[in-house]
Amino acid sequence: MVKLAVIFYSMGGTNVQLSKWAAEGAKEAGAEVKVFKVKELAPESAIEGNEAWKATVEKTKDIPEVTPDDLEWADAIIFSVPTRFGNMPSQMKQFLDTTGGLWAQGKLVNKVVSAMSSAQNPHGGQEATILSLYTTMYHWGAIVAAPGYSDPVTFGAGGNPYGTSVTVDQDGNMIEDVEAAVKYQAKRTVTVAGWVKNGNQ
């Protein structure tokens, strides 16, 4: 059984939902799934002043914060983050910066990884954000399982070959219907991880 970690950062709840869909798709593919959030770095005052952010913090309070041990446990990892000027949020970057010990021991080599993103504009940096995550993954020696155009469902979700991405309006609603694409991406990630795991035994 493939062990999958779904790791997200979310302020408005979009990437919480993407992560839940990914977990559902992966479980349908037979994986053991754990969902994690990264540690929040923003001051409490900033969160308190934003109702959507505050609600997301409350909604995700029982989801555990990811640790390097969780990466070691996983055969595969799916990341889900909003874009910050075409890059990943600092909260996710800070977590990735703690993985040097695992990297030095070669414990991240051949992890199968994939990523998703969101932004408030169709061209608000989603693709660049996913690629910024993959840059770290290449240093790990991980295997990127991007959806590409391996299934027509990608086109229905906007056609991002690097990973599912979604546009979110000012009220926090997703513009594109991406649930099927997210679940397909998760299943593909689990399938590739199964090939790697079974071929390595």
Explain briefly what this protein structure is.
By secondary structure, this protein is an alpha/beta fold. Helices cover 43% and strands 16% of the residues. α1 crosses α9 (179-199).
- Gyration radius (Cα, Å) is 16 Å
SSE-based structural type: alpha/beta
Q: Based on the structure given, which CATH architecture is correct?
A: 3-Layer(aba) Sandwich
Q: Span between N and C termini?
A: 13 Å
Main CATH class: Alpha Beta
Major sheet characteristics = 6 strands, parallel
Instruction: Tally the helices.
Output: 9
What is the arithmetic mean of pLDDT? 96
Inertia-based shape: globular
How much β-strand is present in the residues? 15-25%
The helicity comes to 40-55%
> Helices and strands, in N-to-C order?
EHEHHHEHHEHEHEH
Number of strands: 6
| Low-confidence segments | none
CATH superfamily: Flavodoxin domain
CATH topology (level 3) name: Rossmann fold
How many domains? The number is 1
Structural summary, described in words:
It is a single chain. The model has no long low-confidence stretch (mean pLDDT 96). The protein starts with a strand and ends with a helix. β1, α1 (14-28) and β2 form a beta-alpha-beta unit. It has a single domain (3-200), classed as Flavodoxin domain (Rossmann fold). It has 201 residues and is of the alpha/beta class. α1 (14-28) packs across α9 (179-199). Strands 1, 2, 3, 4, 5 and 6 form a 6-stranded parallel sheet that branches. It has helices spanning 14-28, 44-48, 51-59, 68-73, 90-96, 100-104, 126-140, 153-156, 179-199, and strands spanning 3-8, 32-37, 76-82, 112-119, 143-144, 165-167.
